[in-house]
Each structure stands twice: as structure tokens, then as C-alpha cells.
Amino acid sequence: MKRLYRSDKEKMLSGVCGGLAIYFNVDPTLIRLLWVLLFFMNPLMIIVYIIAAIIIPIAPEGVLYDFSKEPEKIKAESGE
Fold it and tell me: What's the per-residue H, E or C state across 30-69?
């Protein structure tokens, strides 16, 4: 099961964008650019970012969250 965590490796401020990038399996730079664009469209997005940094937990030790192989894992577990 996929879980959303703040990234401890792909972080610039608090790891929210890095965690979202890992969760959606995209480049963290794209998520960061999206946040900047959303911030210029609506400055209240900084509050959303701060709330996300508070609510989303940091990835615990030993949790490997590389979801690039997730579809293969799901297929293997379902027996297809």
C-alpha cells in the first residue's frame, strides 16, 4: 500500500514536494515548479504548504518508498 511521507532525501525546505514526487513517481522539480506557479496564482498556497509540512509525516527509518516498481509488485502479489 502506498503511503505519503515527506522525503528525507529529496527535500529543499521540509520535503513535502519531494514526498509528493515520490508518491506520484515524477521528478521533484516538476512538483516544485507547480507549487511556485500555484503560489503566484494564489499566495495562500504557502499556508497549504505549511499545513502539509505539519500533517504529512517524515518517512520512518527503514521504509523504502521507491514506487517505480510498485506495478510489478502488485502484479506479482496478485498472481498475474
Answer: HHHHHHHHHHHHCCCHHHHHHHHHHHCCECCCCCCCCHHH
Cα–Cα distances in Å, from 69 out to 3, 22, 38, 66?
15, 12, 30, 7
- Grid coordinates representing 54 are 505539519
- The pLDDT of residue 27 is 87
Neighbours of 23 (CB within 10 A): 17
* pTM of the full structure: 0.69
Q: Is residue 6 part of a domain?
A: no
* Residue 10 belongs to a domain: no
